[in-house]
Design a protein that fits this description.
The structure holds two protein chains of two kinds. By secondary structure, chain A is α+β, with helices and mostly antiparallel strands. Helices cover about 35% and strands about 15% of the residues of chain A. In chain A, α3 links the parallel β1 and β2. The chains are: A alpha+beta, B alpha+beta. The complex binds flavin-adenine dinucleotide. Flavin-adenine dinucleotide binds next to α6, β6, α7, β15 and α11 of chain A.
Chain lengths: ~650, ~250
């Protein structure tokens, strides 16, 4: 029997979560004090989860690789966070948010999970506001909203272009409060190297102290991975450069299934690749598409100054192709449309791999001051990097790797296929199907952490009250620590000629070209061979300086790149298996005459959950069939 | 262009550090400062040498990881930027660039250019929060906040916790950091209830951790990558005084 049980509660969609919550097992305050939980990750999922679990009374150990929890990659989220408040009186509701996400995800997400996240969305805004997050406000003192892609209502809450920073600091402050109260022990500058399983249950982790190099063993009654996404597999992406997929990958190798690994969102509006030394691409928030208009010249290779090109000679291709949503079509649609124009030779800039995002009309209509109030810091950011001033000259943008919808497979309880191992935030696969809508990742992470995991975790721990706190001097911990250490020594022993970064760059190229915005069977098969070759080269020619028992950033990189080389194979395998196009996963073989993605519901209306079978063995595919009982499955149209 | 680098190298917290000289050719103007260091490190590794340790993550000026003291200025030449937003166009061919870690008693060096800023976490844990448990919050629009107050709170909240203010201050004071947090929360109704306690506790913790006192030179404001104004220090002083009086009552 497959271990894939989604555990979706019975009953009508709108009642599932409340009924389930009311029937969950509880743990008495006295027993909570005896139970411990490890949370790896302090982003918008991990920090709220850890703080909330500690508030309940559990003993929580929290880990991150940065020097402090507040620097988790969520800090860089720009545009905003969604909620179904309907403050604008524009017809929003929990159901509509749910529907937008299901449709935006191209009918490849689980109805019950998506409905639940929409249901808790309002409480998230209440929580952050109460914590003192300075969200944007109207003159009357109420909270302000703006619109994001793929929807026709204004439901996005924001704090200029620094929403991620502001709400993360809210979560971080709650975490610090629990640190002060002694309920959370914080372990920063730690890299999780392995997951420890005892008698079939997740009971701890192995970490490396990044300052001393010491290999450490940590135990608990349950483990939560809130370790973020793996978009950095492309080397160049909009993520913080140290983001990685290692924790999820190690969990996968210990038996946790990986859901839809090839579903990666390519964001349409990033600053284009400028040169060869770049190690990251800077995002220009989707919120800019509220006022910016995307275009390319109608004439191929038109090198004129964009400001001198008259309107009739501009092709506002999103407005042309998708009149209903215009510049605010979902990300996958916008990215592919830009790529299509550039591939056809209409791209602009030095490389021809860019399109304009123009604020001329918005500045004219609303004035520079208003535009500054909305996007000031984004415009500054753009100017610092490119030297151009967006109030005067259109921005140049191009798609870039951004977000992984794929991740550890979890059931309705957010538990992986390993009992006692939970995954929340971007690290899980759960709520975005084949494409995520803007401003819904922060919502999902915070919702998982504040309002879902604390319940489902308690339900799990209720059966653990008799379990003594697991010891770390057991064979399982010793074995895991030993093999983690051996792996690090192995990196150091290779003593070849090429750096970890150079391998990462090459892997990134392979993935971007063959398993990025557009995929086909030939390219994917070629990629499998190339990744295999690169992996061999890595293990025979890697050069890591220094020692294992000291601060050694190259060693940290090496273990991330080694994991990426393995994860890449799984991504490509998944992309090969899914012969349909859906959301961000565009298989060239499966498109409509107009070049839109063509789903094949009769064959692929499932979540692909992959089970590890051993290195160099084909992983095993499990299918979680998706049932749509509350929405009509349609062709996704934004025309 | 070709540049000369004079970089602080220190193997571990206890080791005695010293400056080491490097030369780097083929530096392009559009490189960011950290990309320049990346290419130096790639070169050093290939030559069998130990690379320079420095911190970085988001590379777009928001995570606060990178903080380098460049030619005598936190985050180097240029206003309101983090080190990762500094570009090599700020330098010219043949320049010598001196790079040091933050120097402050509260921020001990861990290795090369990396310092331990854990003290900031401790100050935050002393009171940089609103005591509200998950699930207790009222409907968000039941708390009205004037746009002006919200914007002002935001400007303070923009602090990225990089520590440039401390590095810039001759007394290694952390006043701007503390002021930003205390003011943000004092400006909002949600934070008012604990305002006094917060100001007292955060200041006490800051003093305990070895940060110096503020003598109003304004160096912190000048070097803050987020342009946080020292007006917030005045606000902190008011909060603190007011809190001290009412405690004495
Ligand atoms: C530039 C940018 C802008 C964005 N803007 C928005 C937006 O406006 N709205 C929106 O909804 N979404 C946005 N997103 C997406 C969103 O920011 C992320 O999906 C979300 O923040 C992920 O949060 P998380 O808590 O799951 O993980 P992260 O914030 O990535 O946190 C991961 C945590 O795990 C830790 N960790 C990871 N691996 C290990 C390991 N091996 N050992 C120890 N610790 C580890 C890290 O230290 C960190 O604390 C944006 C993304 C990018 C890249």
């Amino acid at each position: 029997m497959s271990k894939l049980e989604s555990k979706i509660p019975e009953g009508p969609l709108a009642e599932k979560w409340s009924k389930y919550k009311a029937s969950m097992k509880l743990v008495s305050p006295l027993n909570k004090k005896k139970l411990s939980v490890i949370v790896v990750g302090t982003g918008i999922a991990g920090a709220p989860a850890a703080a909330s679990l500690a508030e309940l009374g559990y003993n929580v150990k929290v880990f991150c690789f940065q020097d402090t929890a507040r620097r988790a990659h969520s800090v860089a989220a720009q545009g905003g966070i969604n909620a179904a408040k309907n403050y604008k009186n524009d017809g929003d509701s929990v159901y509509r948010l749910f529907y937008d996400m299901i449709k935006g995800g191209d009918f490849r997400a689980r109805e019950a999970n998506v409905y639940r996240i929409a249901e808790v969305s309002n409480a998230i805004i209440d929580q952050f506001t109460a914590q003192g997050v300075p969200f944007a406000r109207e003159y009357g003192g109420t909270l302000a909203n703006r619109t994001f892609g793929g929807v026709q209502v204004s439901r996005t809450f924001y704090a200029q272009g620094q929403t991620g920073q502001q709400i993360l600091l809210g979560g971080y402050s709650a975490l610090k409060r629990q640190v002060a109260l002694g309920k959370v022990t914080m372990y920063s500058r730690r890299q999780m190297l392995d997951l420890v399983i005892v008698d079939g249950k997740a009971r701890g982790i192995i970490t490396r102290n990044l300052v001393t190099g010491e290999i450490e063993k940590h135990s608990a009654h349950a483990v939560v991975l809130a370790t973020g996404g793996y978009g950095t597999i492309y080397y160049l992406s909009t993520l913080a450069v140290n983001s990685n997929g290692s924790a999820a990958w190690q969990a996968y190798k210990k038996g946790a299934f990986f859901g839809n690994p090839s579903f990666v969102q390519i964001h349409p509006t990033s600053i284009p690749v400028l040169n060869d030394y770049q190690c990251k691409l800077t995002l220009m928030s989707e919120s800019l598409r509220n006022d910016g208009r995307i275009w390319v010249p109608k004439e191929k290779g038109d090198k004129r100054d964009p400001n001198t090109i008259p309107d009739e000679e501009r092709d506002y291709f999103l407005e042309r192709r998708y009149p209903a949503f215009g510049n605010l079509v979902p990300r996958d649609v916008a990215s592919r449309a830009s790529k299509e124009r550039c591939d056809a030779g209409y791209g602009v800039g030095k490389t021809g791999l860019a399109v304009y995002l123009d604020f001329r009309d918005a500045v004219k209509k609303q004035g520079e001051k208003t535009i500054k109030g909305k996007y000031g810091n984004l415009f500054d950011l753009y100017e610092k990097i490119t030297g151009d001033i967006p109030y005067k000259t259109p921005m140049m943008i191009y798609p870039a790797g951004h977000y992984t919808m794929g991740g550890l497979w979890v059931d309705y309880n957010l538990m992986t296929t390993i009992p006692g191992l939970f995954a929340i935030g971007e690290a899980n696969f759960s709520d975005h199907g084949a494409n995520r809508l803007g401003a819904s990742s922060l919502m999902q992470g915070a919702g998982d952490g504040y309002f879902i995991l604390p319940y489902t975790m308690t339900n799990y721990l209720a059966d653990e009250i008799a379990t003594k706190i697991p010891l770390t001097d057991t064979p399982e911990f010793e074995e895991a620590a030993k093999s983690a250490k051996e792996r690090l020594d192995k990196f150091l022993r290779i003593n070849g000629k090429q750096t970890a970064t150079s391998f990462h760059k090459r892997l990134g190229h392979i993935m971007w070209n063959n398993c990025g915005m557009s995929r086909n069977e030939e390219g994917l098969k070629k990629a499998l061979v190339m990744i295999g070759d690169l992996k061999k080269e890595f293990w025979s020619d890697l050069k890591i300086p220094g020692k294992a028992d000291e601060l050694n950033q190259e060693l940290e990189k090496a273990s991330r790149v080694a994991d990426f080389l393995e994860l890449a194979t799984l991504m490509v395998t998944d992309a090969l298996n899914r012969k349909e196009s859906c959301g961000a996963h565009f298989r060239e073989e499966s498109q409509t005459e107009g070049g839109e993605a063509q789903r094949i519901d009769s064959e692929y209306s499932y979540v692909a959950a992959w089970e590890y079978q051993g290195d160099d063995k084909e992983p095993k595919l499990h299918k979680e069939e998706l049932k749509f009982e509350n929405v009509e499955v349609k062709v996704r149209s934004y025309k | 262009m070709k540049i000369k680098l004079n970089i602080w190298k220190q193997e571990n917290p206890k080791a005695k550090g010293k400056f080491e000289k490097f030369e780097l050719d083929g530096v392009a103007e559009e490189m960011s400062f950290l990309e320049m260091l990346d290419s130096l490190n790639e070169k050093l590794i290939k030559e069998g040498q130990i690379p320079v340790a420095f911190e970085h993550d988001c590379r777009e000026g928001i995570c606060g990881s990178c903080g380098l003291y460049i030619n005598g200025r936190p985050h180097g030449p240029g206003d309101e930027i983090g080190t990762c937003q500094l570009h090599m166009r700020a330098f010219k061919d043949g320049d010598t660039i001196t790079i040091e870690p933050w120097r402050a008693k509260g921020f001990p060096v861990i290795r090369d250019l990396i310092v331990d800023r854990n003290a900031f976490d401790k100050i935050m844990a002393a009171g940089g929060f609103v005591s509200i448990d998950t699930g207790q919050a009222a409907e968000a629009n039941s708390i009205l906040v004037s746009k002006i107050a919200a914007d002002k709170a935001f400007d303070a909240a923009a602090c990225i916790g990089c520590g440039a203010c401390v590095a810039a201050c001759k007394n290694s004071s952390a006043m701007l950091f503390v002021a930003a947090k205390v003011s943000q929360l004092a400006l909002l109704p949600q934070g008012k209830i604990e305002a006094k306690r917060r100001a007292l506790n955060m200041i006490a913790k800051m003093d305990e951790l070895g940060f110096g006192s503020c003598t109003n030179t304004g160096a912190c404001e000048a070097e803050c990558p987020k342009g946080i104004s020292i007006d917030y220090i005045a606000m902190l002083n008011r909060e603190y005084l007011c809190a001290s009086f009412s405690e004495a009552e």
